[in-house]
Amino acid sequence: MKLLLTTLLVIFNLTVFAQSNAFAGDYNRNFSKEGDHLIEYKLNLRQDGTFVFHSYSKIKNGFPPEVNKYGKGKWTAKDNVITFSSNKQEDFDEKYTLDFNNSRARFVTKNPRDKSDRIIKTKLTFIRSEIPWMQRLDVFKT
Q1: Model confidence pLDDT, tens digit, residues 38-74
Q2: Does position 13 have pLDDT exceeding 60, yes or no?
Q3: Is 86 helix (H, G, I), strand (E, B) or coil?
Q4: What percent of the chain has pLDDT over 90?
């Protein structure tokens, strides 16, 4: 009985760990107009449950012309929704100023049961955020 219980516990833990592997990785999104504007978003979800976000914009005739914004904190996944959080004491300083508290993103990927030829890129779609320009933003897994 102990062996059976131990085996089930190990299988359960491996399953939970395998699910977080699907979410972890680098996500990117670029918007550009030749010679005029460039906006880049980079999100790194790490295996240890932490994340780093970088937003870069270079807009011709903008003020200021180049802007870098950073954010970091922790992430958790439940079903296909990733919840972000930032600790005021640990995750904020002069460089990391974006507040990801109350931000959520949906993990979108092709269902393994879908045998069609259609291509669905793996992505995160921000469904909720107190950062206004993050609403409905898609970042694609690389």
Answers
A1: 999 999 999 999 999 999 999 888 788 899 999 999 9
A2: no
A3: coil
A4: 65
User: Residue 2: what pLDDT?
Assistant: 58
Helix (H/G/I), strand (E/B), else coil: 138: strand
pLDDT, residue 11, reads 53
Contact present, 117 and 133 (Cβ < 8 Å) = no
What is the spatial distance between Cα 54 and Cα 72, in angstroms, rounded to a whole number?
9
Whether residue 64 is preceded by a cis peptide bond, meaning omega within 30 degrees of 0, is yes
pTM exceeds 0.70 for this model:
yes
**Closest to 111 (Cα-Cα) out of 22, 44, 16, 26:** 22
Give the separation between CA 57 and CA 104, rounded to whole angstroms.
23
* R_g of the chain computed on alpha carbons: 18
Statement: residue 32 has pLDDT above 60: yes
DSSP 105: E
| Structural tokens at position 53 | 């976000």
**Could you give all domains of the chain from N- to C-terminal order, each with its CATH number?**
2-141 (2.40.128.300)
Is 101:129 a contact under the CB 8 Å cutoff?
Answer: no
